Amino acid sequence: MPDHEPTTPADSTAPPNRRDDWLTTAELAQEYKLNIGTLRYWRHIGYGPASFALGRKIFYRRTDVQAWIAEQEHRTRRGGTTTGD
């Protein structure tokens, strides 16, 4: 029996309920360079990436954040196309 616990490699097929897939409001703000107050306000008005509460702590799933950002990019993207003249 080994002296340490076995480790499993992190991969993108990991179940979404793993803690390393969750971001707190502060972690999300830091990682994406957003203001914590902005994230709190967005949550209050029902805007922004999906979030959930565990007790009094708010979490965001990394996959939900990435999906929301992709949606925003798709909806607001300008330029980069040719007119075909």
Question: Key features?
Answer:
alpha+beta, 3-stranded antiparallel beta sheet, elongated, 85 residues, 3 strands
Report mean pLDDT, rounded to a whole number: 85
Strand order of the largest sheet: 1-3-2
User: What fold name goes in the CATH topology slot of the domain at 19-73?
Assistant: Arc Repressor Mutant, subunit A
Low-confidence stretches: 5-11
Question: In percent terms, what proportion of residues is strand?
Answer: 5-15%
Main sheet summary: 3 strands, antiparallel
Cα separation of the termini: 71 Å
Look at the structure and give the CATH class of the domain at 19-73.
Mainly Alpha
Task: Please count the beta strands (DSSP E, at least 2 residues each).
Answer: 3
> Number of helical runs?
3
Helix content: 25-40%
The radius of gyration is 18 Å
Order of helical and strand elements: EHHEEH
Shape: elongated
- Summing up helix and strand content along with how strands pair, one would put the structural category as alpha+beta
CATH architecture label name of the domain at 19-73: Orthogonal Bundle
